[in-house]
Write a structure and sequence with these properties.
The chain is α+β, with helices and mostly antiparallel strands. The chain contains nine helices and six strands, in the order H-E-H-H-E-E-H-H-E-H-H-E-E-H-H. Helices cover 70% and strands 9% of the residues.
């Protein structure tokens, strides 16, 4: 009989422990900071950046202009009552037949018939302008993507530098502690001990500067992502490492000519300018205004039918037609300039990648390992009295300088890759 209560108590305790474990796990997940990858950062910027969202409204504005361009003219309605005896009020009561001038009532409706295909020309011109606007917004997206990606790399560089600074500080603090013991034991002079201790200030300063660079980098990146899209304590994730490029210049330039939205906008600008020329030619054609009216005068009812049209003797919209022709030439020259700029951008970015790749390869060819090995040897020899303090401090400075320079070279290389992606107009590089 006593086993049942005991078994129940055991099960209840196990259940409580399981609930506590689940609660602690959920709490840990809730408290864990948000970490985003490079691809996530780019997507968040494209979805939440307020400057880009504002630019995208220009597409809707251009679509609204299409509605306006496709509207037909409104009909006109006019009404009048003539020969009212305002200055002889007594005549208001006299029969119309006895009045010197019979009162007359007129009503007419007119409608403008647009000739020369004006409405269709307006609609085509508006649609061509919408196409240019879409490509311009796409080019804004291309620029924002590069800004977000390069800022992401800056944060990675800052965090890598901070990690290095903390490791150096920790290692050198150990050296300071050992030097203090040696000083107390009489193995080194007080001057040598103070030199080592003062050197610790540089490591502490490096950590502070790296922390500041990381905080500022994350803040600037958050602004690009959309301030509300990530919490204040977010962080970045992903490897800060070398990524080889295998494509050649000619293929990248050919790809850019196909994908660059600014070049597409320039090409569509020529089409839009041609549409404007057709519109201005159509605007030079006169419109026909038919009229249907009703009149009542002296007891007689009549129906009036008429039409009016402007005679294009002087104004045939010659000025706007000439301006539109020059605008086509302007758009063609802008297209040629943009085409050359695309090829130049790709070449410059490609050469920057190659140059930075060579620098990274120099570091990776053995200098990093040699610097670490030199530091380890100098530290080992100094701690055992086989090397001078100056030799050890020089090896320490060389190692730190090479490590920081390598990270800078790597950040420059990765940024150059992003520049090449922007110049090519695609993030898919071989």
């Amino acid at each position: 009989m006593l086993l049942q209560p005991v078994r129940f108590a055991i099960l209840a305790a196990a259940g409580c422990l399981a609930l506590l474990g689940l609660a602690s796990s959920l709490a840990a997940q809730v408290q864990r900071p948000v970490r985003i990858s490079l691809d996530q950062a780019v997507q968040m910027a494209l979805q939440h950046n307020h400057a880009l969202l504002a630019a995208r409204t220009t597409i809707q504005q251009s679509l609204a202009e299409e509605i306006t361009a496709n509207l037909r003219p409104n009909p006109s309605f006019a009404i009048d009552y003539q020969f009212l005896p305002v200055f002889n009020p007594s005549q208001f009561d006299e029969p119309a037949s006895q009045l010197p001038l019979p009162r007359e009532f007129d009503a007419n409706v007119s409608y403008t018939l647009e000739l020369g295909g004006k409405r269709r020309a307006r609609l085509l011109a508006a649609r061509d302008q919408t196409a240019v606007t879409r490509s311009t917004v796409a080019d804004n997206e291309r620029t924002l993507t590069f800004q977000a990606a390069s800022q992401f790399i800056s944060v990675q560089f800052a965090e890598s530098t901070l990690e290095l600074a903390r490791e150096d500080l920790k290692g050198f603090q150990n050296t300071v502690n050992i030097s203090e013991d040696r000083y107390k034991a009489g193995d080194i002079s007080k001057d040598d001990y103070l030199k080592i201790k003062l050197q610790l200030l540089q490591f502490q300063t490096d950590v502070s500067q790296a922390q500041l660079a990381r905080v500022q980098g994350l803040s600037d990146l958050r602004q690009l992502l959309g301030y509300e899209s990530v919490p204040a304590d977010y962080d970045v994730s992903g490897d800060f490492d070398y990524q080889p490029l295998k494509g050649n210049l000619e293929d990248l330039q050919a790809k850019a000519l196909q994908t660059r939205p600014d070049l597409r906008a320039a090409q569509q600008g020529v089409t839009s300018a041609q549409s404007q020329l057709r519109l201005q030619k159509a605007n030079g054609k006169p419109d026909l205004v038919p009229l249907l009216g009703y009149s009542q005068a002296g007891g007689e009812h009549t129906l009036d039918v008429g039409a009016s049209i402007a005679l294009p003797i002087f104004d045939r919209n010659q000025g706007e037609v000439a301006r539109a022709r020059y605008a086509i030439t302007q758009a063609q020259e802008q297209q040629n300039a943009t085409n050359g700029q695309v090829l130049t951008d790709v070449r410059d970015a490609y050469e920057a990648v190659r140059s930075n790749d060579q620098i990274v390869m120099i570091f990776r060819s053995g200098y990093l390992e040699e610097a670490k090995e030199d530091l380890d040897i100098s530290e080992y020899a100094y701690k055992r009295g086989a090397a001078s303090l100056l030799d050890f401090l020089d090896a320490e400075r060389s190692y730190r300088a090479i490590q920081v320079s390598y990270r800078q070279a790597l950040a420059s290389y990765l940024t150059a890759l992003e520049q090449l992606r922007e110049a090519t107009g695609t993030r898919s590089l071989p």
